[in-house]
Amino acid sequence: MSAQSLAAAPGGNDASLTLLLLKARTFIALIAVIVFFSFAAPNFLSTANLIIMSEHVALNAFLAIGMTFVIITGGIDLSVGSIVGLCGMVAGYLVLNGVTLDFTGYTVFFNTFEIIFLTLGVGVAVGVVNGLLITRLNVAPFIATLGTLYVARGMALLSSDGATFPNLRGSEEWGTASFPFIGAGSLFGVPVSIWVLVVLGLGAAYLAARTPLGRQIYAVGGNERAAALSGIKVVRVKMFVYMFSGFCAAIVGLIIASQLVASHPATGESFELNAIAAAVLGGTSMSGGRGKIGGTIVGAFVIGILSDGLVMMGVSSFWQTVIKGLVIIAAVVVDQFQQRLQQRIALQRQAAFGR
């Protein structure tokens, strides 16, 4: 009886089909851009170009994964691009100069693994600052991370007076000769950055879907007050997501400095926009409580392929910025439409089962 009532609901089947298409919109968009650029851009599907695009996508995907957790909790992290620049400069400084101990006059040089560890620590530290501002001082996430965006960018500029740290090829003597391998090396023909993305993506997806912490992240984003009343440590959850976002940004800073064998303080400018776009396009709700890591990675592929495809077609960088902005707006509008449609279907089902 209830099934018959639901089937008889006005537009019930059409609404369900529309909702299914909306949920699969990221995959549909990915297929669409691949098909379009395979015809519009020469050599788009060549092996060399696919590898290059995958490396570009990986950089955006790292940031988008961290951003997804932040947005699920109902927050935002505008500082990730500046963290990329700051961490790249930290890595470059350590490779070239080491750390001079003023009280002894000696300079300590670190090997590649130690530099990776210290650089990731800087990214996490900025995440800690973001988390403390938001959870302890009750600063709105937008304002808190906007402030750290400027602070981190300023620190990156101060580290070299705005200059570039060049020739980061490292030294055999100090154990840093392997530094370029992070961004330019490959294993079994696949770039190292892609392997790192696979590991991070699988780990993040498992955390979100299979662990108590993952469920707590969704609960905080769905209803923070209810989550607190149920015993969830909301402050700890929020601290974690901002620290993880800073960690992901630090990975990108390391990879870019290694790829270019140089670090520049302006690296990472506007990267936060691509990360937000990938997360939202992948189905993460800006209102919090909903999102999947898999969808975010697919969204990163859409944004990355769109950017590289437009470059191959010779489209002006100014128009590329316009198109990315339109993609973000469209993604948010579609997400809002999906939420309204889900609410309507839920009400129809309640009415049908109530008959």
TrEMBL record:
UniProt membrane topology term: Multi-pass membrane protein
Transport among keywords: yes
Gene Ontology molecular function: any one: transmembrane transporter activity
Pfam families: BPD_transp_2
Transmembrane segments: 26-45, 57-76, 82-103, 115-133, 139-158, 179-208, 239-262, 293-311
Keywords for the protein's UniProt record, in alphabetical order: Cell inner membrane, Cell membrane, Membrane, Transmembrane, Transmembrane helix, Transport
Protein name, entry field: Sugar ABC transporter permease
InterPro entries: ABC_transp_permease (IPR001851)
Coiled coil (residue ranges): none
Highest taxon of the lineage: Bacteria
Signal peptide (residue range): none
